[in-house]
Amino acid sequence: MRLDKLLGGAGLTRAQARRAVADGRVRVEARVARDPGMRVDGLRVELDAQPVEAPGELYWMLHKPAGVLSAVSDAREQTAFSLLPQRAQLRRPSPVGRLDKDVTGLLLFTTDGELLHRLISPRCAVEKVYRARVEGTPGQQAVRALSEGVALSDFTARPARLEVLGENSVRLTITEGRYHEVKRLLAAVIVYMAFSLMMAVLWSLLQSPDLAITEAAVGAGITSILFFLTLKKIHALKGTRDE
User: What pTM was estimated for this model as a whole?
Assistant: First the structure.
């Protein structure tokens, strides 16, 4: 772990962490630190003569509203990252995948690189479930086409599962996440109404007893529900033991 990231876990912003290092307030193994980017894994770190402990990994689930970017920062647009509480922002978690600006749904933020890779890597085939409104009711031909893999202009999509929920409503499950893939797949087999797409990645999480609601974050007149994953669910996702 980088020294400035460790200090961020102690409540300092990145700028404050660099200033603390520059001012000689930080020691690593009893020596004054000079490089805020140095690796400090397993080393004793002190800030103002007080030990700094490595924080645990951070996991936040955010319901992203429409009109918000799935980015960490943007000079002109509001981002999903800005809807996280300040204490979470200080840890600089990364979004797991991205949702288009007009898309609403579950977006996971984490500092756990192993889990992030496991969830977004096509080789792990983690299911991502989307709900969308479409024009008319898709028939079996559309269901079959998606189950066999649709050939798009630049790649052939992996087999996907399409479920008809009712008139003008479908649920699509995919195991990869290429650029605009859901919109392109639906447009290839049925008439798709993009403005009403709703996304729920890892659908099972929303129905899981290992999910807990913690608080609501309100920004720019938009209410976004924040969740956290319990340790048991995190181990299940990573395929590790809950010890």
Answer: 0.65
